[in-house]
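Students often ask what a holo structure prediction actually looks like on paper. The answer is less mysterious than it sounds. You provide the chain, you provide the ligand, and the output is a string of discrete structure tokens encoding the 3D arrangement of the protein together with iron/sulfur cluster.
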Amino acid sequence: TSPTAAPAPPTDTHCPYCSLQCGMRLGVGEGTKAEVLERPDFPVNRGALCGKGRSAPALLARDVRLTGPLLRDRPGGPLRAAGWPEALDRVADGLAQTREQHGPDAVGVFGGGGLTNEKAYLLGKFARVVLRTANIDYNGRFCMSSAAAAHRKAFGLDRGLPFPLDDIPRTGCLILVGGNPAETMPPAVRYFRELRENGGRLIVVDPRRTRTAELADLHLQPRPGGDLALALGLLHLVIADGLVDKDFVAERTTGFEAAREAAMAHWPDRVERITGVPAHQLREAARLFGTAATGMVLTARGPEQQSKGTDTVGAWIDLCLATGNSGRPYAGYGCLTGQGNGQGGREHGQKADQLPGYRSIEDPAARAHVAGVWGVQAESIPGPGKSAYELLDDLGRPDGVRALLLAGSNPAVSAPNAGHVTERLRALDLLVVADLVLSETARLADVVLPVTQWAEEDGTTTNLEGRVILRRRAFDPPEGVRSELWVLRELAARLGVATGFPVDAEEAFDELRRASAGGDADYAGISYRRIAAEDGVFWPCPAEDHPGTRRLFLDRYATPDGRARFAAVTHRPAGEEPDEAYPLYLTTGRVLAQYQSGAQTRRVAELTEAAPGPFVELHPRLAERLGVADGEPVAVTSRRGRAVAPARITGAIRADTVFMPFHWPGAGRANSLTNPALDPVSRMPEFKVCAVRVERAEQE
Ligand code: SF4
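The corresponding structure tokens follow.
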């Protein structure tokens, strides 16, 4: 069942969790248990790991994971153990039947930003070549799609960071907007510390005074949804103060005049009224950024997960362009991607509107190239399908998806308006979930397929810098567990496609290289051998003798005229603002010891001990008004649902805002509350801003 046996330990590999993709070495400790050893030679983290990475081997234990397929014989009945042939036959028959009765688009595929590049690539190919459905999207749509859309609009190309992480300490002033690496990726904090040690200035924008904000020279604390107005206010000030880099704007950009007009309507007093950030702080930030020799802006989910996320990121890019902070070393705009393969996951065809190589599915030349690699007619490749939330919202409806194959995602916890999404998942004729654990979504499935995980398989991921790295198989998976690559080949064969789905990861990668050749994310020159020899290779890398591209846009942008484009956007309110019935903002986020929906990290004892459950962060003045003491349960209600969790009273949050982490299911599920209002360009839901009311709750 396995293409290769695990090599003898220790094995150099990478963490299964976030987009930093820290290097680690896996060895065998006491009682033949896997143990994490330091790997100080990997440049991104130089041996440092957070608690999630250090404890990751706990997920290899049989008692926390699935070790054989599960089937449900009737709706509402229990899941029972089954063999692989029976489970695969049931899936293939169900998918074929749905396709026959309702057409190919009634079958959907939902992928994940944690899947390796090889899995993401073959999942996209499976959807389009075997199922012939347009309806494939993935949870990365909920992660960085607004930044990706803004990047492409401005620069013609999207790579999270268009420069390596080690440029950060050498910039003069860095504005970090809506990101909290001190909790989400602690080994990355050293880059920000070194920046300050080198005399650079750090400005953090966040409605909460987070651990990262504590490191800053200046913390701007806007209302949730205020990031766009804030960026425009800063642009207004750098223009008014004569800090525009006129030569750069003239030589390397287009559209400045429209951006200038938009910014001039956002004078400091107006921005203060919109955002709650005092005008004097705004002036200080504009001075620090506008006068620095080099500057960077990094965004994360805060400004991106909004119904105006693309425009918001566009406004921050405009600030970089106006000040000449782009297209040169130690300067520029970048996005801190979240999921382990958030970057690679969006490049190889899991996205509803894209084909491998980060190509548009509507581009005839792109379709012809990919069709050639796949050995199919270009016309047979379906067009763009529904975006992630739209797909989930339509599940089980007459014109929606009726049978869904889901891999590497847990939308019953992680999707916005998760109570509604859970109902839609229940309405499906067939739900198939491939996962390593029995997640909340897997519990709803008709068929559950247990799959291998990071230390049990070879595969590549692409970290937040665009560095393609190689995770190595260190251990054999338990009997009864299979790789998604094997599952796809078996299903393809049952559905009449006998070839084209390699089980060997390197073989899959070599096909991906051909499919990506000539595209934006060009992997043609990247091989397993090179990755292992070079600490990863940065794309684009069009040939084996090409060194890879650490810094993008030094000579030209990837737009038709080679110039960067100003976004020229204006402020607008969030999809839902507080009112009499729901007078507070809710914003959501992460904690240090948990990851994403928590499906994996909630099963690791030391992480659960460190972060046992959800909480509601609220300001002391609000707590006093509500008559709530620290630790007492509070109920948070939005137009979509209710969540109950203990109060955590802190002066680190705005008094008009409450915060909940989103890693837990059940009564404290934060996403029961969140608003699925979508960004019109990226189709990103508005996770970061909605209106709620908060009350004391009896212990539930
Ligand atoms: Fe893993 Fe991210 Fe922690 Fe590094 S920072 S050990 S990649 S979770």
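DSSP finds 22 helices and 30 strands in the chain.
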